[in-house]
Design a protein that fits this description.
alpha/beta; Four Helix Bundle (Hemerythrin (Met), subunit A); Methylthioribose-1-phosphate isomerase; NagB/RpiA_transferase-like; EC 5.3.1.23; isomerase
Length: 367
């Protein structure tokens, strides 16, 4: 997508320096900063500190981290050590382990002298595949938006609510939940997007920044406004992303997603999840019982970052002194609350049968 008229991906390889550059998302939407990752610790810190964030982008970053590891020391021992080092960075998003496993399985039979080149090529492939996957998700989501638009009076927008940031900043490009929005807007379909703030890190501000850069009409709303809007018929559908989805269609996403799904179910609003296939964990059935939920630092809850009166980025405390903060980063939405899963292969029911029909080769292996 574009920033100030220039096309960017969320990460890119600088061949001349042999370095990965990223958009450091900690400073958005107020400051656009680019950072180079040059050490394994840089890669780990970028993931842990959410300089890069979003399941697909975390996976792609980890793949480039494995490429750096193989350039430094292509031995089996270092491969396993680097796999473990990166795997420990964040526990919930399955794309991280998916990318690490894919790299290790591909590199294990390769001669050590060739591993650096093979690993870098594979990282490029994983990044490019993510772009293609997200574009295809957008195509299938566009069809859903067209159906709703066709039933509305001419010129009346399709009103979409989204939670967190499942945009191009959370992937390599296009985004998952936002890809249908971009493609619908570019196709001339009137849109209005309700953007949840998504406390505590306010990732909705990233979505708002993205949509604004693309010219898509939207409003930034507090997390608790969604149910009210649905009650009053102001939401036509909900589209969110996912960090891990079980083989039966339970969806793990940013904290607060479950509440949106409950409100949508109670008000008859379609609730869709944009789902890249690498985020499917075929080893997990019951998401509530089996998916580990990351507990992040309470500082993210007790403090808020933003622009101060002088136009500078600063952090302020919003809680009383001594108050403890709890910060579960994700929740799980049971499949019964999900209208459908928008994947790169089409839209399916959030059921074992629905997913298996679209991805029979993956479901077979998992079974």
């Amino acid at each position: 997508m574009k920033v100030n008229g220039k096309h960017y991906r969320s990460l890119w390889w600088v061949e001349s320096r042999g370095e990965l550059e990223i958009i450091d998302q900690r400073w958005l939407p107020h400051d656009f900063r680019i950072e180079a990752l040059t050490t394994m610790q840089d890669y780990a810190d970028a993931i842990v500190e959410m300089r890069v964030r979003g399941a697909p982008l975390i996976g792609a970053t980890a793949a480039y981290g494995m490429a750096l590891a193989m350039a430094q020391d292509p031995s089996d021992a270092n491969m396993d050590k680097s796999w473990d080092f990166l795997d420990r960075t964040r526990p919930t998003a399955i794309n991280l382990r998916w990318a690490l496993n894919r790299c290790r399985e591909a590199l294990r039979p390769v001669a050590e002298g060739n591993r650096a080149d093979v690993a870098l090529k594979l990282a490029h492939e994983i990044a490019d595949e993510d772009v293609d996957i997200c574009h295809s998700i957008g195509q299938h989501g566009l069809a859903l938006i067209r159906e709703i638009a066709a039933k509305k009076p001419v010129g009346e927008p399709v009103r979409i609510l989204t939670h967190c940031n499942a945009g191009w900043l959370a992937t390599v490009d296009w985004g998952t939940a936002t890809s249908p929005m971009y493609q619908a807007f570019d196709a001339g379909i009137p849109l209005h997007v309700w953007v949840d703030e998504t406390r505590p890190r306010n990732q909705g501000a990233l979505t708002s920044w993205e949509l604004g850069s693309h010219g898509i009409p939207h409003k930034y709303i507090v997390d608790n406004a969604g149910g009210h809007l649905m009650q009053h018929g102001l939401v036509d559908l909900v589209i969110v992303g996912t960090d891990r989805t079980t083989r039966r269609g339970d969806v793990c996403n940013k904290i607060g997603t479950y509440l949106k799904a409950l409100a949508a179910h109670d008000n008859g609003v379609p609730f869709y999840v944009a789902l890249p296939s690498p985020t499917i964990d075929w080893t997990v059935d019951d998401g509530v019982a089996e998916i580990p939920i990351e507990e992040r630092d309470a500082f993210e809850v007790t403090h808020v970052q933003g622009l101060n009166a002088d136009g500078k980025i600063s952090t302020v405390q919003v809680s009383p002194n001594g108050t403890q903060g709890g910060n579960p980063a994700f929740d799980v939405t049971p499949n019964r609350l999900v209208t459908g899963l928008i994947t790169e292969r089409g839209v399916c029911a959030a059921t074992p049968e629905g997913l298996a029909a679209l991805f029979p080769e993956m479901a077979k292996v998992s079974g």
